[in-house]
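User: Assemble these into one structure.

Assistant: Restating your components, then the assembled model:
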Amino acid sequence: MTYLAKPKFHHPNLPKNALGYTHRDYEGTVSTLCAGCGHDSITASIIQACFELSIEPHRVAKISGIGCSSKTPTYFLGNSHGFNSVHGRMPSVLTGANLANRDLIYLGVSGDGDSASIGLGQFAHCLRRGVNMVYIVENNGVYGLTKGQFSATADRGSKSKRGFINTDNSIDLAATALQLGASFVARSFSGDKQQLVPIITAAIAHQGAAFIDVISPCVAFNNHAGSTKSFDFVREHNEAVNRLDFMASRMPIEVKYEPGTVEVVEQHDGSKLALRKLAADYDVHDRTAALGFLQQHAAKGQIVTGLLYVDEAPEDLHAHLHTVEAPLNTLTEKELCPGEAALEAINASLR
Amino acid sequence: MPTATPISRVNDFVVRFANVNGSGSASANELFARAILRMGVPVSPRNIFPSNIQGLPTWYEVRVSEAGHLGARGGTDLMVAMNPQTFDRDIAGIDPGGYLLYDSTKPLPRSKFRDDITVIGVPLTAICNREYTDPRQRQLFKNIIYIGVLTALLDMDVAAVERLIGEQYQGKDRLIAPNVKALHIGRDYATLNLNCPIGLRVKNSDEVGDRIFIDGNSAAALGAVFGGASVCAWYPITPSSSLADAFTRHCAKLRVDPATKQAKYAIIQAEDELASIGMVIGAGWNGARAFTATSGPGISLMQEFIGLAYFAEIPAVIFNVQRAGPSTGMPTRTQQCDIICCAYASHGDTKHVLLFPEDPTEAFEFGALSFDLADRLQTPIFVMLDLDIGMNHRLSKPLKWEDGRVYDRGKVMTAEELEAGKDFGRYLDVDGDGITYRTYPGTHPTRGSYFTRGTSRDKYARYTEDGGSYVDNMQRLIRKFDTAKDLVPRPLQANAAKPTKYGVIYYGSTAPAMDEAIGLIEARGHAVDRLRLRAFPFHSSVASFVADHDFTFMVEQNRDAQMRSLIVNECGIDPVRLVPILQYDGTPITARFIAKAIGDHLEALKVKPLKVSS
């Protein structure tokens, strides 16, 4: 098997977005993952989010590391440039790409092995720097391509398919992202597209470092009894703190909610997030409280999902570096080269 | 009187300062070197420093050479011994007939000195204790006082030193008078109490010309500025950090939009070398000119990414300021020891383009050129500096740039070409030179996008594990490497005055010592032709140079004769034809070492010397 082209035929009456594209225009090639893989649901959610946002597919750069999750960027946005880089190093490649052209949308796709094991350092540092991106971890707690070894997000006490019990503590990437200063942090479940699509949509609209930890069960190696990343376990222990509706800046707010149950958060780009609170005491603007909430629930074996934290006016890396508005990759010798006279002056200062 | 005749030379000697690291000596010693330059006499200073901030021994060597020899010579004519820790070996290193300047505040037994040198004692500590009450001032001005002593001993133009002090403290004017005063305290002491001048003298000359005094790292950084680098990602490591620092400094002056104060560059101090090369590759993939600066250990960490950039064909520039390895090795000592690990960096079959500048001027030229080469060849380009070039000020030809020079951005397909229906295959070799077209991300809504990966793919960038497609691609990469042979700087050949059967190949920081050694070798009655390598892959003239000589010396600064291995391997040459001449103790290779090694070798072969006519 090398490459499967996906037929482009589709129903003539498929809904179109503001750009006249159907969701088929946001698809990629046929997935080569296992049937039923959680990652394919995330792919579908990304396609849906980009369709709903009416994004020009070619204005997205998809960057990934290595692993099952990192293969998925070929399965969506076929008209986007993609870069399947090195294991655990997606964040640095994405950071460099972002520096070169601040005008594209950067979608980083990674896995739990890629981000929490081999790539924990780069995961941490790109969030610290505030790179404007959507960083999605498709988190299944195991290495799929090498057949089921535990990753660093596997919970202590969970059982592998071969029957081993994990004795190492797990890394909670969402909690870590909160601590590192990510300006948008969410957790979701690949089996809950209704929750996931608006989260991805809101993350794309967010103009800062957005991190989404998506629990995505591995049907081949981590969907058995004793696993804490199986479909059944996640469904039973999912503690959603809120439900999100995303409204792009051009959409009017349609208030359909019971008064007092909805909080509207306006992001820097004008988009609005309508949050239906499920946990009454949860505040998406309080980073420290969010951390405490995650830890308390983790101790009870619960998986907290939803939008966990958002900073409506984040600063990104380009703001920190005071870079010019024009993408650096569009600058020519005219803007970049100081020229002969400047060099002569430098020579003179060195005599 | 010493038992050896005191050395008597004008504008041709080596002064070595032995100091304690962190005592503020470096700036005083540099002042001394610059003062001689201002007198129109070429100097080449070398800072031999420890991996330490304070306390360990450090040396600063100033070679004065009206003849213009800028390499290390070897030996010391005047030792300024200011470090008790190294006193004995510093004295042992003085050439017979040489001079010692030391702090005579505490009397030392006669056994501490040598009979065959001129010993000059100045009670520096006593003078400082008398003149200054603040301990820090006592230390700092002691350095200036011994410079003052030297101006008298060497008959130097004291006004040149005073002017330099004025320039150095411009804006901090209150520091000028005390420094000038300290200078004269030393000078006056020497004039009154010592036999001035000694046999070594500096005389005004006119041999400096329009040359500039610059370190290789700064020059390479300027090359990056002029060459259009807009993204720099780096991780601190000796001896390369000053390259990124210089890029930062120059960009702040030259690359800020005067109206908006916004930066036309982005510099990231990454969390490690893996991240720095990853950022460079991300930026290069996305169409910006990007580089990193590092040294051997950093290159080791970057290996996996370098293989990705080679295979996925992404432009990147890596400045490798080499230091002595392996492992942490001698981090503040120079070597040319990363030739093999850069030429074949990463797993699998890889070959990379390397450039070997000889001095700061070429570090600038090759620095700028490397970005054109990276874009043209869509591959990592290594600019192979070393500590000797990178961290020492060197008298260099002025840096040159011609307005109107256009950056070569290589084969990039535009939105217009895609719109016009031009066939785009990311790995489709339409021109037969192994170089394929790329597109920048975001170019066209429906055409020209592709997926970049380190896995095998077909000509249209589609994933494949088909062996035929893989081999086809690997062969194309070799074709591309062949194309590079004619794009990189060619080797420079200089033949001996008379036809000879012997040649010598050298590269990088060995050049000035080699150029000088040739004169010494000729003085012994031998003749050798020279070839200075400036890049890998090797131009065809390298193989023919070896073929044209019975045997060729390979002069290198590493243990394993790495360039020799590369030539043997790449040019299919019988190893016996290449005789290694190696110095790798961490100090810069010297003319005396090269001349002796080659001269002895030729004489051992009973080569009949050519008649020397005088």
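The two ends of chain B are 33 Å apart (CA to CA).
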